[in-house]
Amino acid sequence: MRPFIAPSLLSADFARLGEAAKLAEEAGADLIHVDIMDGHFVPSLSFGPQLIASLKKILKIPVWAHLMVEKPDNFIFQFYEAGTDWLSIHLEASQHIHREIIQIKELKIKAGLALNPGTPIHFMIDILKDLDFVLLMTVDPGWGGQTLIESTRNKIRLLKNWIKGQNLEIPVAIDGGVTVDNMADLIKDGVDIFVAGATIFGHEDPAAVIRQMKEIALGGGTL
Ligand code: DX5
Ligand code: ZN
C-alpha cells in the first residue's frame, strides 16, 4: 500500500477541531488521528469519546482513537459507541492485551497495538497475527511537537521484517516527530501510516503540508 497520512488533532486549535479535521479531509488525509489522554498513563489530558462522535457526523474518512489511558478495557465500548473506526491501545497500559484486542475486533473496529519507544517489539510476538495494525511510538507519548527518537527506526525495520517473514500484511504506523524532511527515509524503513500533528497543524497552511506529505507518500520529492 502507499503510505497513509493521518493528521493528529492534538496540535490543532481546540476551539476549531471540526474545521481542522474537515480541512485535513479535503486536503487528502487518509484518516484522522485523535489522541485520548487520561492524565495517568501520560501526564496530559486531552479528549474523550464525545469528540469522536462529533467528528463522525462531519467526516467521510475513518476516525482513529489512540488511547493513551490506563485500563483501556474500561473505554473500549465507549469508543465503539462513539463510532470510532480504528482504535489503538497501549501494551504498557493493559494487563490482558490479547482479550482486549479480540474485544475490539469483535466490535468490527480496526484493532491496533501501540508500543512506547522503550518497549521491545518482542513483547508483541504472540499477538502479532491478531492485529489489524501496529502503532510504534517514535516519541515518548504525551505531547505533540517532539523530535523523533532515532533508535525507533531500527524497531520499524525489525518489525517489518518479522511481518514479512510471517507472510502477514499488517500496516505499521508511527506517531511522533514526523516531518516532511524525514518521511522519505521512514518510507524506506517500511512505515505504512504516518501520524503527524505539529508538522501539519503547527504550519500556517495545514492543507498545503498534507498535500506535500501525500506527494512524498506517492514517491514524489519534497517541494
Ligand atoms: C503524542 C501523540 C501524537 C502527537 C504527535 O503523544 O500520540 O499523536 O500528536 O505529534 P507530533 O506529530 O507533533 O510529534
Ligand atoms: Zn497519537
Describe this structure in words.
This protein has 223 residues and is an alpha/beta fold. The chain has one domain: TIM Barrel, CATH 3.20.20.70. Helices cover 33% and strands 18% of the residues. It has 8 helices and 8 strands; from the N terminus they run βαβαβαβαββαβαβαα. It starts with a strand and ends in a 6-residue tail after the last helix. The model has no long low-confidence stretch (mean pLDDT 96). The structure holds D-xylitol-5-phosphate and zinc ion.
Describe, in short, the structure shown:
The protein is of the alpha/beta class. Helices cover 33% and strands 18% of the residues.
